[in-house]
Design a protein that fits this description.
Chain A: Pfam families: EAL (PF00563), GGDEF (PF00990). The complex is a heterodimer of chains A (655) and B (166). Chain A is an alpha/beta fold. Chain A contains 21 helices and 17 strands. In chain A, 29% of the residues are buried. Chain B is of the alpha+beta class and 166 residues long. Helices cover 27% and strands 31% of the residues of chain B.
């Protein structure tokens, strides 16, 4: 297409140039031919020659009618005419034929002779000259007529050239018309193509527009999905962080962050199923939305954790909202024909100068407050204060120390005696763990065992304790029981039974000498599994003690269903046993039940003689308490390495 | 009436007196005669010029190529318009008549225009009759395409001896 157009334009240019040059050439030729008419020149020369001849005759024949000057003038004129015979074109015409040259030569000769002889010419020589001139009249006239013919031939040739030129003109014009037509066609085609491509572009454009709309739509929905929780439709964690950072950046007033956690939601899920749990979460979030006009935004961070941003309220205002919200959430839920109540814990942190507050820090503070709220009893709403951070940091440090302690074995076992109430003989010893912290001193188990449980260190710690206790007991000469406390989590470890077997094997302690103490809380988990494990342990030959009996969820069913050997009655039952008959009755009941069920009963927390005496009266078989012995280090157990039995056990322990 | 007759008479007398004495008489051989509608004369109703009189009107040179000579030629002569002004020519055309009775018509616009000269010299030599003398009407052909046409070539009369102003 473009090439064709280029060829056409080139053809136009060539045709135009060709026409212009041809025309100008032709014009040049015509001008040259026309400018000097040779025929005229020749005929003029002939005429002047004859006028000279006549003038000469008139001067010499007719009594000098014409003067000599007039003759000479005519002669000069003829000379001037002869000069024109030397001009290019005329010269060529003359030289084309020898005959013409001969005539011209004769002419020049006659005129030349006349010129030299004129002044001395007499009549006779004049006549001779006239005769010579007369002879030339004929040939000169022929020359003239030939020149005319030549002129006509030239004109004819020029006419032919013109004709040719005209034909070329015609062809060129026809070609130009043709080229013009092609150009028009090309133009039309181009227009059509343009229209088509315009239409295509329009279609493409509208496609693009709709695609772009669709994309925007998808983007919007993707963005919504990315920033919202599918279950509750609340903004999710991502949007929460963006909103928090935004609020801190732009808010002029205070910003409060509430972290909300449903209490015991896990048990709802576990007992009523996840679908029910989801419904509950949904309804809780609906109730949160009722507060939308008081708060900036609610978010679901995941699970049963929610967050709420409050902008422009003081601490009291934020706390008020928290209380209202907690009350609203605590109101009974009716779901799937069930009535359910669930409370929540709320931790609040405040940024009084939002622009200089870091979002991460604020979140951590709210989290610390939430942690404390969960631990609290009653109103589980906690506003973060600086000391909480310190406590939190302290706890974190303790956690780190505990990890190191497990690695380095910074634990020591103390042993407390269990004695026969009647004979005061030593029945066994309970191993009690202490943590010898390098800077904090001795830390009791109540402060670090739960921490170890939270940190997942309890199996390791339990193993350390078990090994240490068994190793120590194995050195004793007397076959006393060694009682070791278990955490409920240890029972959940899949290879716990095997690990006990291994410890017994490596320490060489007979299984019958080992008593493992559990608490009733182990039964909160999978009761069947716990029963199975306990049976496996008992099958090894060791005994199981139920520690802190009488507190917690104790029920008679435990006595029936759980395979254990020893009841350790909690010390709270012993405290006023000496003064309060009812308390004594309870202890007696337990002792009787235990005895009739063939279980060993150990009364804990005996501190006074009066208590001891009372227990003796009630028929309690075994006791444990400060009255008999405080927990002591292994180094104080040297006497156990001797074969003979000491009579006064209490004395042995007391120094 | 009388007064107007007197004015007419005075005018006639003045006119006669003025052209009778307007131009000096030629002293050498007459080479150019101007007749016709002219105001200034020196011999009855004609004006006659010898070479000195013409040269007295000022000279001008034209260097040009011509159809008649094969080389660049230098012509020298009196400007045509000076001569026309000198004789007080009025009219449409000037007829130039050559020795051989060749006659050509030159429009007055050419004659009073600035370009044409009445050449008397060719390449520094006076032209005699054998060399297209004594007077050759020459245009500056090279100066314009217009002058290189048959029209102007035919107006370029040579061996001119007489102008008739009409």
């Amino acid at each position: 297409m473009t090439r064709l157009l280029g060829i056409l334009i080139a053809a136009f240019v060539i045709a135009t140039v060709y026409m212009t040059t041809t025309v100008s050439q032709r014009q040049e030729v015509l001008r040259h031919v026309a400018h000097h008419n040779d025929a005229w020149a020749v005929s003029q020369s002939v005429a002047e020659f004859m006028r000279l001849e006549a003038m000469l005759a008139s001067h010499f024949m007719s009594d000098e009618t014409a003067s000599l000057d007039e003759v000479r003038l005519r002669l000069d004129i003829v000379f001037s005419r002869l000069a024109s015979f030397d001009e290019d074109k005329l010269k060529a015409f003359l030289e084309a034929s020898p005959k013409r040259l001969e005539i011209v030569t004769k002419l020049r000769s006659v005129i030349s002779d006349l010129d030299t002889e004129l002044d001395q010419m007499d009549r006779a020589s004049a006549i001779a000259m006239i005769n010579r001139m007369h002879e030339l009249n004929g040939p000169l006239t022929q020359l003239s007529s030939q020149s005319v013919q030549q002129g006509w031939a030239d004109i004819e040739a020029n006419l032919e050239s013109l004709e040719e030129l005209h034909q070329i003109y015609g062809i060129v014009v026809a070609f130009l018309i043709f080229a013009w037509c092609v150009l028009i066609l090309l133009q039309l085609r181009q227009n059509r193509l343009l229209t088509n491509s315009q239409k295509q572009a329009e279609v493409l454009n509208s496609d693009l527009v709709s695609a772009s709309k669709e994309l925007q739509e998808k983007n919007r929905s993707l963005e919504y999905v990315a920033h919202h929780d599918a279950l509750t439709q609340l903004p999710n964690r991502i949007l929460f962080w963006a909103e928090l950072e935004n609020a801190l950046r732009e808010s002029r007033g205070a910003v409060n962050l509430m972290l909300i956690d449903l209490n015991d939601f896990k048990s709802v899920n576990d007992t009523l199923g996840h679908d029910f749990g989801d419904l509950l979460l949904n309804q809780v979030s609906q109730r949160m939305r009722e507060f939308d006009d008081k708060v900036h935004i609610f978010c679901r961070l995941g699970g049963d954790e929610f967050a709420c941003l409050i902008v422009g309220k003081d601490d009291a205002g934020a706390e008020n909202i928290a209380h209202e919200l907690a009350a609203r959430i605590a109101a009974p839920h009716f779901l799937m024909n069930r009535k359910l109540e669930i409370s929540c814990s709320i931790g609040i942190s405040s940024a009084h100068d939002p622009q200089s507050t870091d979002a991460q820090t604020m979140f951590k503070q709210a989290d610390i407050a939430l942690y404390r709220a969960k631990d609290a009893t009653g109103q589980r709403i906690c506003l973060f204060e600086e000391f909480m951070q310190r406590e939190f940091d302290d706890r974190k440090a303790l956690e780190n120390d505990l990890r190191l302690a497990v690695q380095r074995n910074e634990f020591e076992l103390l042993y407390q005696a269990q004695v026969d109430v009647m004979s005061l003989e030593l029945r066994g010893l309970e191993a009690l763990v202490r943590w010898n912290h390098p800077t904090r001193g001795q830390i009791p188990p109540g402060l670090f065992v739960s921490l170890a449980e939270e940190l997942g260190l309890i199996n390791e710690l339990g193993h350390i304790i078990l090994v240490a206790a068994c190793t120590e007991a194995a050195t004793w000469m007397r076959p006393l029981k060694i009682a070791v406390n278990l955490s409920p989590l240890q029972l959940q470890a899949p290879d716990f039974v095997q690990s006990v077997v291994d410890v017994l094997k490596t320490t060489g302690l007979p299984a019958e000498r080992l008593e493992l103490e559990i608490t009733e809380t182990v039964l909160l988990d999978n009761r069947e599994r716990v029963v199975k494990i306990l049976n496996e342990l008992r099958a090894l030959g060791l005994t199981i003690a139920m520690d802190d009996f009488g507190t917690g969820y104790s029920s008679l069913a435990i006595l029936r269903d759980i395979p254990f050997d020893t009841i350790k009655l909690d010390k709270s039952f012993v405290r006023d046993i000496a003064e309060n008959p009812q308390a004594a009755s309870l202890v007696k009941l337990v002792v009787d039940v235990g005895t009739s069920l063939n279980k060993t009963v150990i009364i804990e927390g005996v501190e006074t003689r009066a208590q001891h005496e009372r227990i003796r009266q009630l028929g309690g078989p075994l006791s444990q308490g400060f009255l008999f012995a405080r927990p002591v280090r292994a180094s104080k157990l040297g006497f156990l390495h001797q074969a003979e039995q000491h009579a006064d056990l209490i004395d042995d322990f007391s120094h | 009436m009388i007064r107007s007759c007197a004015v007419l008479l005075a005018a006639v007398c003045f006119t006669n007196a003025s052209w009778a004495d307007a131009l000096p008489k030629p002293t050498g051989p007459v080479i150019l005669t101007i007749t016709g509608n002219i105001e200034n004369t020196n011999d009855g109703d004609i004006a006659q010029f010898d070479r000195a009189m013409l040269e007295g009107l000022g000279l001008k040179e034209i260097k040009t190529n011509t159809p008649w000579y094969n080389t660049l030629s230098t012509f020298e002569g009196v400007p045509f318009n000076e001569v026309m002004k000198y004789v007080g020519a009025n009219g449409e055309t000037v007829r130039a008549i050559a020795l051989n009775d060749y006659e050509t018509e030159i429009p007055m616009s050419d004659a009073v225009g600035p370009d044409a000269i009445l050449a008397m010299k060719l390449n520094g030599q006076y032209m005699d009759v054998r060399d297209k003398g004594p007077i050759f009407v020459v245009y500056p052909y090279d100066s314009s395409q217009t002058y290189q046409t048959q029209t102007y070539y035919s107006r370029s009369a040579w061996q001119v001896t007489r102008f008739i102003v009409e």
